[in-house]
Design a protein that fits this description.
This protein is an all-alpha fold. Helices cover 48% and strands 0% of the residues. It is elongated and about 55 Å long. The termini are far apart.
Length: 66
């Protein structure tokens, strides 16, 4: 790595996207992932769809008891 870097030709904010929405990775415990994979396979749906459906249901329950 050089001691000094010349940024004279650089453009500020070149890769900045103000409305960019990032998909964050969610890491499941192995036993949880295995369990959900089995349910998703039985229902013939992707794991991500099953996880979203379960989370939406939980959010609905939480909101209902507020």
């Amino acid at each position: 790595m050089p001691a000094e870097v010349n940024f004279a030709g650089a453009t500020r904010g070149k890769f900045y996207r103000p409305n960019l929405r990032l998909n964050l990775p969610v890491y499941l415990d192995a036993e949880v992932q295995d369990y959900l994979n089995a349910i998703a396979a039985k229902k013939g749906m992707p794991l991500s769809q099953l996880a979203n459906d379960l989370l939406k249901r939980e959010i609905g329950i939480i909101e209902a008891v507020k």
